[in-house]
Amino acid sequence: MKSFIKTLFFTLITLSIFSATSQNTNKKLFNKIDSYLDASAKNGFSGVVLVAKKGEVILSKGYGWADRKNKIPNSPATVFNIGSVTKQFTASAILKLVEQGKMKTSDKLSLYFPQIPLDKTDITIHQLLTHTSGISNKTGGFRYNEASKEQFLKEFFESELHFKPGTTYQYANANYIMLTAILELVSGQTYNVFLQKNLFEPAQMKTTGYKSINFNTELLAHGYYYNRDDEKWTDWGTTQQHLLYNNNYWYSIGKGDIHSSIEDLYKWHVALQNNVVLTSKTREIQETPYVAENDKMTSYYGYGWAISKSHNDAKIVAHNGSNGLYFADFVRFVDDDVVVIYITNAFLGPESENVAREIGKMVFDTNYNATPISRNIYELIHDFMKTNPSANADKLPNYLNKELKDEFNDPAILNRLGYSRLKKEDQPDWALALFKLNVKLFPEDGNLWDSLGEAYLTYNQKEDAIKSYSKAVELGSEGSKETLQELLKEDE
Predict the structure, then answer these.
(1) Using one digit for the tens of pLDDT, what is the confidence trace for 250-297?
(2) Which residues on adjacent β-strands are paired with residue 317?
(3) Which residues are in the Beta-lactamase-related domain (predicted)?
(4) From its phi and psi, is residue 231 left (phi > 0), alpha (psi between -120 and 50) or beta?
(5) What is the 3-class SS of 245-306, one letter each residue?
(6) How far apart are CA 468 and CA 364, in angstroms?
(7) Is the pTM of this model over 0.85?
(8) Which of 35, 146, 173, 418 has its Cα between 20 and 30 A from that of 359?
């Protein structure tokens, strides 16, 4: 008896030490991630992040504003547009119908659309799910333009395939819009109703859906973008203001524009883990790496998920998405039982796409420290222009390298800003200075010399314009030839 009590005592002590160590480790990880995001928020980052490990939520927090005008901060309950993270829900809905015995992934489109054109007859559900149908990534219009289901189907059927179905991977939103049309045909329900009843309600997700809102609208995050022409951040509003509640938005449905919160997305993750919505066999089918997404074969596409391996060869199941303003990333390190969910409503630049992966590095490497997201590059340049005369343009690259903590190497940035300023400046100033700086930084780009020539012409500096256009033609800018010839004729 004494031996048992002694063993129990030491067991409890060991568990207590282990628990304390685990709590201390998680606290350190929280502080590291939170510091990275706080520093990013000082540079304009706005969004939400949830990190969980082995069933314990380590961080669930909002940064910046959901609504700047009304001073409503982002929080774990804030609802965002999740972009193409939507595709996993569309794929799960299709697989739910498969579980119900109402369809198969091997079904061909001709089963659902008897009058389908011959070249698309044998496209299968599997090929739509894996983006191997051959359909162009340009099929379908702008997401917030009105289009009926019939209009989309007509465009899909009349479009030219880019390759034979089943032979090549090409990510195309039209695949998932078509899956939605089939889902509604097979289920007899609208996309929104089917997902609510079969996915979101079983997972206890209260603020997730396509267009439908039955919660406080103050939870909706506004999307913000930096307007290059106005030189300020602009409120785009919410998705629901651009996506009206009717059945005429078939360029949007199924492939993107579901709204959700990190709280709800974590509930979805738990529901998948616990086979609440789909069986373990179905989840395995969904997370199978069917087709390589790139030539290096480092990532594969499953059904609404991208599958890859971590540095230690552990499985990662993830998907990101964006509508150009919001950006979402849902990364599940399934072998390590870690999930990182991230959404932003103010896209600062390419670094905004790497937040979830940077956090993942911090989770698995205690020595890794992520560099905070830099301010929007257009905002940085405008700030420099406000505090410097155009004669100081040559100092701009060093300023950007310091602020971005990386070498500035994108010629399109200065070109866009040059044209933006050209509309505003009657006399040579920053517009001309930006174009001149750009050709100095990237002297082998004929398009930039063409832009500089256009700026010189705007300010009636014909001789310099001819030199610039001549350089553009020398570097292969075909569009510059006609303008150059006209200028030379004028001098004859």
Answers:
(1) 999 999 999 999 999 999 999 999 999 999 999 999 999 999 999 999
(2) 307, 332
(3) 43-356
(4) left
(5) CCCCECCCCCCCCCEECHHHHHHHHHHHHCCCCCCHHHHHHHCCCCEECCCCCCEEECCCCE
(6) 52
(7) yes
(8) 173
